């Protein structure tokens, strides 16, 4: 924990805890629903495909119900995290989502360069020179190690095609 | 004596120059992985697993297991120098390791930690050498019911042993089973739980889950604290090493006890973390200078490190001999076996002698190499920690993406990784354990198969799990482990309500 002011506000831990239990419970319901569709009874070849997942789903729902009950009784008023901390987390999640989402179109290398550069420049506040050195260096090293040395192909986009790699 | 001959043959395999090179590379990468935030043993091995697809299986497992040893060593560096446990089982090392470093004795603490780690690992490897073939031979007689009983015991001990609330452990574990069930049903060949999404035909790969849950999730947790990351420095010179080594034999009793605790706890899943705490706790109670624990006592470093390393190593015993991994990292290694086309379990000892004994021999050599590497290169590894998180974090994220992509050459997996990452962050914040989730994804299919096959044999009667002495004993142990937590929780709640 950092020694930031404790007065800052944020979502209550209890809320998240309840949300998490509900989320897992819903997941359990989906599993039960899917198992019912696959068939949970005893077929010609023994237990059908949904047999095992059905009980797994039931256990998820049951455990979540108990977790939910525990979470609701929780009254310590803890914060899940401060808004500032969550902003920090989101400042990584959102660009990573864009990075991951753009990968099928522009390839891993270009996406990684932009992502590293963005991260270092805006979150880290590094000089352009350092930023560019790392942002270009990392994909180049990756290319050499993965594609050349270990022969593992990575997704490529228009730029690599143009370069003929 | 046949084992001894096999072991020597294994040494011949492990001592090939190519394998020695991989060993040193593995250890070095492993220590770096252990030192860096956001890259633990499990997801470090998962990310690097695709690199081994083209290697012979024995070389591949030597490199990957060495990454694991390296990560175990690396955890101690961050615990002692920066009070940041690299792995959950290094937490107990911070209690006395960090105070020692603050008192200007970091070299002594590090030497003690590394040496104890080595001793613990060595003890566990010797145990594996002696016990694993016996267990495997015994397990060859297991039918589906016994197999299921072993899985049952493994998962029940998670519920009983983990410090998280039992119902959260169950919820996390069952989610893993559900995720494992998605896709093609291995027995009937029927599709299930895919809801028409073609990407889910092959189900969820646990490697993606590991990289997301442990890698991305960890980065997000670290981001909460911002980019400020304070580093320190350390040097170890030969004089300090030799001086510490002269002191260490005096604590042989603590070492031996910690080895035993570590091996015992390591064989049962979820063991390494409780092993380190238990060993620390017992050492504190029994040591002559027990009152001084927490203020920089060398014995307080020896006890948890020995136990954690012994547990981390012996986690490979059930993985090799029964096909049930004792830790998330062992689970990733087991996933590797499947990818290389080997069937984990007792048959390995019969069909893949070279592989098994090459691996066991490499454990001896790898840990020795690890000790030498960490003792000589601590300043370099500590320097890595001084690279600011603002540079490290994007690089780790990119590495995770590469690792996730190269498992199946699929960009869908990379997106899935991010989803698992956010999920991992939330689960961890809400105190849900991740290890049983991952293990359930790995073992889900096999556990289900064993379960259904046993029911097939018994025409649907659950009595098959209590049909003979062996299977009943394992099941009974499992039930004890399962309800152990319930009893404990009930007891403590009773106590708090009375107080």
TrEMBL record, chain A:
Phosphoprotein recorded as keyword: no
Domain DUF1468, chain residue ranges per copy: 21-155
Keywords assigned: Membrane, Transmembrane, Transmembrane helix
InterPro entries: DUF1468
Transmembrane parts of this sequence: 21-40, 52-71, 92-120, 126-146
Protein name as catalogued: Tripartite tricarboxylate transporter TctB family protein
TrEMBL record, chain B:
Keyword Nucleotide-binding applies: no
Zinc in keyword set: no
Domain DUF112: 20-439
Database matches in InterPro entries: DUF112_TM
Transmembrane region(s): 20-49, 61-82, 109-136, 148-163, 169-188, 200-221, 322-343, 355-381, 387-407, 414-443, 463-487
One Pfam short name: TctA
Keywords of the record: Membrane, Transmembrane, Transmembrane helix
Protein name stated in the entry: Tripartite tricarboxylate transporter permease
Species annotation: Bradyrhizobium agreste
């Amino acid at each position: 924990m950092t020694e930031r002011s404790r007065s800052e506000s944020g979502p209550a831990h209890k809320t998240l805890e309840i949300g998490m239990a509900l989320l897992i419970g819903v997941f359990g319901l989906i599993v039960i629903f899917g198992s019912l569709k696959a068939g949970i009874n005893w077929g010609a070849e023994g237990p059908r495909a949904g047999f095992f997942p059905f009980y797994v789903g039931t256990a998820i729902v049951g455990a979540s119900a108990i977790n939910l009950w525990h979470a609701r009784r929780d009254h310590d008023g803890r914060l899940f995290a401060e808004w500032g901390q969550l902003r920090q987390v989101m400042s990584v999640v959102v660009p990573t989502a864009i990075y991951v989402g753009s990968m099928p179109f522009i390839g891993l290398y270009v996406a990684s360069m932009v992502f590293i550069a963005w991260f270092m420049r805006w979150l880290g506040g590094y000089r352009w020179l350092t930023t560019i050195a790392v942002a270009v260096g990392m994909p180049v090293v990756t290319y050499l190690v993965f594609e050349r040395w270990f022969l593992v192909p990575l997704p490529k986009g228009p730029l690599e095609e143009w370069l003929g790699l | 004596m046949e084992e001894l001959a096999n072991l020597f043959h294994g040494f011949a395999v492990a001592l090939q120059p190519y394998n020695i090179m991989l060993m040193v590379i593995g250890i070095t990468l492993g220590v770096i992985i252990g030192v860096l935030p956001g890259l633990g043993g499990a997801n470090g091995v998962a990310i690097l697993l695709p690199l081994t697809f083209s290697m012979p299986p024995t070389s591949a497992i030597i490199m990957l297991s060495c990454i694991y040893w390296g990560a175990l060593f690396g955890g101690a560096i961050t615990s002692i120098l920066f009070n940041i446990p690299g792995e959950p089982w290094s937490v107990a090392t911070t209690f006395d390791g960090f105070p020692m470093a603050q008192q200007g004795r970091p070299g002594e603490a590090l030497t003690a930690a590394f040496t104890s780690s080595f001793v613990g690992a060595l003890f566990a490897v010797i145990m594996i050498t002696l016990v694993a073939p016996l267990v495997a031979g015994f397990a060859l007689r297991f039918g589906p019911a016994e197999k299921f009983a072993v899985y049952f015991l493994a998962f029940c001990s998670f519920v009983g042993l983990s410090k998280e609330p039992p119902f959260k452990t169950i919820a996390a574990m069952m989610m893993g089973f559900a995720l494992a069930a998605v896709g093609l049903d291995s027995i009937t060949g029927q599709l299930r739980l895919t809801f028409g999404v073609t990407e889910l035909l092959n189900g969820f790969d646990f490697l993606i889950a590991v990289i997301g849950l442990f890698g991305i999730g960890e980065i997000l947790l670290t981001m909460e604290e911002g980019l400020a990351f304070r580093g320190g420095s350390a040097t170890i010179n030969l004089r300090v090493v030799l001086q510490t080594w002269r002191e260490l034999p005096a604590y042989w009793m603590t070492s031996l006890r910690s080895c035993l605790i570590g091996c015992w706890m390591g064989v049962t899943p979820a063991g390494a973390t409780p092993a380190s705490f238990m060993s620390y706790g017992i050492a504190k109670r029994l040591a002559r200078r027990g009152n001084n624990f927490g203020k920089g006592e060398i014995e307080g470093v020896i006890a948890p490190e020995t136990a954690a390393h012994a547990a981390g190593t012996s986690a490979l015993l059930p993985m090799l001999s029964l096909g049930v991994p004792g830790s998330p990292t062992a689970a990733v290694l087991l996933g590797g076996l499947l990818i290389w086309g080997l069937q984990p379990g007792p048959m390995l000892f019969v069909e893949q002698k070279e592989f098994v004994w090459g691996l066991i021999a490499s454990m001896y050599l790898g840990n020795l190499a690890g000790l030498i590497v960490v003792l000589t290169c601590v300043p370099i590894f500590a320097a890595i920690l001084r690279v600011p998180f603002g540079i490290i974090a994007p690089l780790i994220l990119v590495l995770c993406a590469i690792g996730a992509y190269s498992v199946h050459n699929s960009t869908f997996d990379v997106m899935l990784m991010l989803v698992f990452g956010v999920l991992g962050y939330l689960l961890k914040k809400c105190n849900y354990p991740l290890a049983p989730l991952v293990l359930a994804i790995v073992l889900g299919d096999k556990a289900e198969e064993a379960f259904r096959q046993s029911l097939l044999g018994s025409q649907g009667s659950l009595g098959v799990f209590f049909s003979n002495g062996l299977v009943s004993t394992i099941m009974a142990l499992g039930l004890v482990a399962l309800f152990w937590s319930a009893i404990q929780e009930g007891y403590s709640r009773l106590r708090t309500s009375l107080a």
